[in-house]
């Protein structure tokens, strides 16, 4: 058994949620925040058998898009604030960041 942890953009979370339910995957959705952008995203926890992992990864791939987002950089510590011009930087986010972890035990009481 594996635990698949997928960090996805909020815009993709409903679509992915529906697709998971339709494909009979059981999932838990957590509201999360990216450490870099400090913007909200959604983390899915999906426990599933090893055999189902490839189709789960494909389903995540099919339902999550990459998007460009603007980041306002933080001013440099101790630097000259007068000379600092905070140009927004564009970064590509997603489609999804996925971790596949082995599960030692699974209980459902
Ligand atoms: P954030 O940390 O807010 O990162 C958003 C996007 O900013 C990233 O997209 C990446 O394109 C960029 N980025 C992140 N850290 C950067 C850095 N140090 N320098 C330059 N650009 C940087 P994604 O890679 O698609 O990640 C989307 C979200 O997935 C992340 O949001 C974070 O919540 C999660 N994530 C990504 N990698 C992770 C990891 N190794 N461990 C845990 N969570 C991760």
UniProtKB/TrEMBL annotation:
Transmembrane segments: none annotated. It comes from the Bacteria. This is Transcriptional regulator.
């Amino acid at each position: 058994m594996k635990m698949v942890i997928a960090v996805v953009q909020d815009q993709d979370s409903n679509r992915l949620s529906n697709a998971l339910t339709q494909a009979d995957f059981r999932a838990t959705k957590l509201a999360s925040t990216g450490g870099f952008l400090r913007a909200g995203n959604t983390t899915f926890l999906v426990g599933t058998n090893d055999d189902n992992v490839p189709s789960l990864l494909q389903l995540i791939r099919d339902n999550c898009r990459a998007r460009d987002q603007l980041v306002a950089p933080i001013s440099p510590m101790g630097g000259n604030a007068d000379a600092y011009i905070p140009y927004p930087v564009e970064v590509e986010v997603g489609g999804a960041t996925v971790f596949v972890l082995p599960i030692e035990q699974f209980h459902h009481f």
